[in-house]
Design a protein that fits this description.
Elements lengths: L1 E3 L2 H8 L5 E6 L5 H11 L4 E6 L19 H8 L5 E3 L3 H4 L18 H4 L3 H16 L3 E5 L3 H13 L5 E5 L19 H7 L1 H14 L5 H14 L3 E9 L12 E10 L2 E10 L1
Parallel strand pairs: 1-4, 2-3, 2-5, 3-4, 5-6
Antiparallel strand pairs: 7-8, 8-9
Length: about 280
């Protein structure tokens, strides 16, 4: 495994590689990331992992400064799974003030985008820059960030990028909590309560599978259930898997998405439903 920090070294290392599978991350890796990297091995002959905490996708009062940066430990976890780790400095990714941005679709202003204005613009911009640097044949993203994955799929289609996008299944703890770098912010008491987010979504999925068509009522009941347990709920929403549109009558491929805060920690999760 080779660790590189500059675009010049990255291009030199990847020159001549037959098929490149790429996993972009912000580091502080957990088993969810490693599962994606392992999956990437079956998608390409050269596996590239980027580790970059992107300032453009953090709001002014978010956790950019305290976001965990654990490069040495991350590289140890990637040993034997990745061929190249690209860990650029901010100045390498943004050698001058970024004044050109990817403008995401209107859907980016909904769900998480309604509570994190500018987040998806910053995310899409840095992912496009990374795609330009790595030139992958396939790129893998976790389904836990479902809205992010939907926006990236649209970006690749609309910019005619020759990259196949693969969504990796969410990796969970034994109690159902989706693995996330931000889980470490939870206090022990909050960690005990945190699985209730997954349980709430599972209840909605069961109701949909049983034939309930009262989507607004299911969303409202789920938000009330979370609030009753001390969560600060941002949203619970049932959408079509394709593009996260409001479901039309007869839609059979749905996804239940939620974002809520437990104490100071913001958690997101989702569950797909096939009817």
């Amino acid at each position: 495994m080779q660790l590189v920090h500059t675009s010049t070294d990255l291009r030199a290392r990847l020159q001549g590689e037959r098929t490149i599978a790429f996993v972009p991350t912000m580091g502080n890796l957990h088993e969810g990331h490693i599962a994606l990297v392992k999956q990437a091995r079956s998608e390409g002959s050269c596996v590239v992992v980027s580790i970059f905490v992107n300032p453009l996708q953090f709001g002014p009062h978010e956790d950019f400064d305290k976001y965990p940066r654990t490069l040495e430990a991350d590289c140890a976890k990637l040993h034997g799974y990745a061929d190249v780790v690209f860990a650029p400095a901010v100045g390498e990714m943004y050698p001058e003030t970024q004044t050109l941005f990817v403008e995401p679709p209107p859907m980016a202003a909904e769900l998480c985008g309604a509570f994190r204005p500018g987040h998806f613009r910053g995310m899409a911009t840095v992912v496009l820059k990374l795609f330009n640097l790595v030139q992958p044949h396939v790129a893998l993203f976790g389904k836990k960030d479902y809205q992010q994955l939907a926006i990236i799929r649209q970006m690749v289609r609309q910019f005619n990028l020759p990259i196949r996008i693969v969504g990796g299944e969410t990796v969970r703890a034994e109690d159902g909590l989706a693995l996330s770098s931000r889980n470490q912010y939870l206090t022990p008491q909050e960690r005990t309560k945190s699985a209730f987010l997954y349980q709430t979504l599972a209840d909605v999925r069961s109701a949909l599978s049983a034939g309930s068509k009262e989507l607004a009522g299911l969303e409202r009941n789920a938000m009330e259930a979370l609030a009753s347990q001390g969560w600060q709920v941002e949203y619970v929403a049932i959408r079509a898997q394709d593009g996260l549109a409001i479901p039309q009558a007869g839609e059979r491929r749905l996804v239940i998405l939620a974002a809520a805060r437990l104490g100071a920690t913001r958690l997101i999760d989702n569950l797909e439903v096939g009817l």
